[in-house]
Specification:
Helix content is 45%, strand content 10%. By secondary structure, the chain is of the alpha/beta class. Helix 2 runs parallel beside helix 4, helix 10 runs parallel beside helix 12 and helix 16 packs across helix 17.
Length: 674
């Protein structure tokens, strides 16, 4: 027989609601408690105090019914009466207790100033005594006048809201809420790490790596990476090992534990890593080097341990650390940070973890950096980063492939030639080319075109290289003439110097911070000869030389030119060994160690010699530039006049004025001394 009572668990309680504790109930109880403390005087036994006027208080004092006066917080007075007078005088009926006994009820009088109230109390009692002494004997008068009087007694009171108990209670409540937030809410989300686990305050040491697996796939593949054929070949070998490990291990081979992608910014290092994540079809952990660094001591090392723990659990997998130089800088280079450097502790833990798992554990590390020369040597040794993959700026054919990738979503006109665009962008990285394509599309849209034309791309290249046109900038006629001769000097000297870069365009329209500019088309060459560098010096100094030849004075417009010339001349003398007096020596530091030293790698005498040779080299180049301009003064004037008129000139205009450009002469077998 079923004797289950209602309300208990079972069939009879299926539709009922279970009792669940809710934190809002506590908040409601606290609110009710505070309201009770605030209004408790009116909740029990009726009203405790009654307002009174000064006329009533004065009457009580004169009749001698007052037993005491308490001045509260110098704001109001509580007037207490004698018990026998309360029940003897019907005027005090409101103060009587229901059971016939006196209680703690009293009158309240709100005065203006405490001093006036005290004086009024004394005067009222003094007048009462004078009235009582009328017709009395001297002895009776003396007794009456010496009788004690009621003096107001000051008292300081604090309500519950002003008391220290409330502050203490609020701080305790705030601390409890903060602890609940730290232990329950703060650890949820990214702070909990890719592997989950305990959150809250204990998640500081958890890894921040983002995990890409079968649930969160990356759509980027090697088809999206144009150029970089050699780098892709080495990366694809690592991906192939993860897919078919037995092909390598059966022959006794060991896959590299790590590969370091090194190259200038924007060349596609991170894009290669994304392609690996899309092609490998294995778990892929992505994290930045700065994510290991934290203000708390030991957190970086803890995150490194947690990252490798999760990687081993999901083996085979790939770990990608972007901008690894944030934690991989060579140790001991900065002695001002002290012995307990958090970054060095993180690096030490990374070195330990990279050399701590087996060679065939299936955990491969990829890293990217722009500054491989500052990384710690222990990080680059075989067994950690076995391979360094150089991701350089794209060559001509690679730029064509990159343009094809970024031009695919753009509506192009028929006149756009990919080969032409690739030749117009020497030295551009993949990110620069992507920016050119996007900027060209924006320019075409701004001009309300239906397709992106060739001129839009040329304007986009000019916008990226030189900056935004500032045609609204006010330039006087004299300044415009000086700028025209300055830019004409650059164009003339570069055109008449066979080894200088060929000119593409010259303009006197202000762009960015410059008042004029000359665009050159650098040759696709891997090495530079002495003759080529000297012609480049002359072409760079052509602007200052033109000002001196034409106007007999110089201006501040050649600041950028002089800076470039000085750096190039110092490189020729001190780095490339192109000077007979200094000799075939190079003081270039490829390791970056001189960055932390206070001295130079040569003596003061050698420094003076380098300065003198650089000064002579620049002076000779400057005189040569002035000679070229003096010999072609008439053509220089024509070019400057056309620049003032047209503001922009191209290669064809220079060819019409100066004739065909001299062919490059073969470099001598023995380089000429600087």
């Amino acid at each position: 027989m079923n004797t289950q009572m209602p309300g208990t668990s079972g069939q009879g309680n299926k539709g009922g609601r279970r009792f669940r504790f809710n934190i809002y109930w506590v908040y409601l109880m606290l609110l009710v408690f505070f309201l009770y403390l605030q209004f408790s005087s009116g909740l029990w036994g009726g009203k405790r105090s009654y307002d009174a006027s000064w006329y009533q208080v004065e009457r009580m004092l004169k009749k001698g019914d007052v037993s005491g006066i308490t001045v509260v917080n110098n704001q109001y007075a509580e007037v207490f009466l004698k018990t026998d007078r309360i029940y003897a005088d019907s005027a005090y009926e409101v103060l009587r207790a229901p059971d016939g006994r006196s209680n703690d009820k009293f009158y309240v009088y709100k005065f203006l100033t405490l001093e006036t109230f005290q004086q009024d109390v004394r005067d009222a009692q003094w007048e009462s005594k004078l009235e009582d002494t009328a017709g009395k004997s001297p002895y009776a008068k003396k007794v009456i006048m010496e009788a004690p009087t009621v003096e107001p007694v000051p008292e300081t009171r604090k309500s519950f809201w002003d008391s220290g108990f409330l502050s203490m209670f609020l701080w305790i409540g705030f601390s409890l809420v903060l602890m609940m937030w730290l232990f329950r809410g703060f650890g949820r989300g990214p702070m909990g790490g890719a592997g989950g686990g305990m959150g809250g305050i204990f998640s500081f040491g958890k890894s921040k790596a983002q995990l890409y697996d079968k649930d969160t796939k990356v759509n980027t593949t090697f088809k999206d990476v144009a150029g970089l054929d050699e780098a892709k070949e080495e990366i694809m070998e690592i991906v192939d090992f993860l897919k078919n490990p037995k092909r390598y291990t059966s022959l006794g081979g060991k896959i590299p534990k790590g590969a370091l992608l090194v190259g200038p910014p924007g060349t596609g290092k991170t894009l290669l890593a994304k392609a690996v994540a899309g092609e490998a079809q294995v778990p892929f952990f992505s994290i930045s080097g700065s994510d290991f660094v934290e203000m708390f001591v030991g957190v970086g090392a803890s995150r490194v341990r947690d990252l490798f723990r999760m990687a081993k659990e999901k083996s085979p997998c790939i770990i990608f650390i972007d901008e690894i130089d944030a934690i991989g800088r060579a140790r001991g280079k900065n002695s001002f940070t002290g012995g307990n450097d958090e970054r060095e502790n993180t690096l030490n833990q990374l070195l330990t973890e990279m050399d701590g798992f087996g060679s065939n554990s299936g955990v491969i590390i990829l890293a990217a950096t722009n500054r491989a020369e500052i990384l710690d040597r222990a990080l680059l040794r075989p067994g950690r980063f076995d391979r360094q993959i150089n991701v350089e700026l794209p060559e001509l054919e690679e730029r064509k492939a990159i343009f094809k990738v970024h031009l695919s979503p753009i509506k192009l006109s028929e006149g756009v030639d990919v080969d032409f665009l690739a030749r117009q962008t020497p030295g551009f990285s993949g990110a620069d080319i992507a920016n050119v394509c996007n900027e060209a599309a924006l320019i075409a849209a701004r001009r309300k075109k239906q397709q992106v034309e060739k001129q839009d791309f040329l304007d986009a290249i000019d916008r990226i290289v030189g900056g935004l046109e500032r045609r609204s900038k006010i330039i006087s006629a004299d300044e415009k003439k000086v700028i025209a001769y300055h830019e004409a000097g650059h164009a003339a000297v570069s055109w008449l110097s066979p080894h200088a870069h060929p000119l593409v365009k010259v303009t006197i329209v202000p762009r960015g911070k410059s008042l004029g500019a000359a665009w050159y088309l650098p040759e696709e060459r891997q090495i530079t000869t002495l003759e080529q560098m000297k012609d480049e010096l002359k072409a760079t100094l052509g602007g200052r030389a033109s000002e001196e030849v034409v106007f007999g004075q110089v201006s501040t417009g050649a600041l950028n030119d002089l800076e470039k010339v000085t750096k190039q001349a110092y490189a020729m003398v001190a780095y490339y060994g192109m000077n007979a007096n200094v000799g075939t020596l190079s003081y270039y530091d490829s390791s970056g160690e001189q960055e932390f030293s206070f001295g130079k790698p040569y003596s003061e005498r050698t420094a003076e010699m380098i300065d003198a040779e650089v000064r002579d080299l620049v002076a000779v180049s400057y005189e040569e530039a002035k000679r070229i301009l003096r010999e072609n003064r008439e053509k220089l004037d024509r070019l400057a006049a056309l620049l003032v008129e047209k503001e922009v000139m191209f290669r064809e205009d220079l060819e019409e004025i100066f004739g065909a450009r001299p062919s490059d002469k073969p470099a001598a077998n023995n380089p000429e001394e600087v």
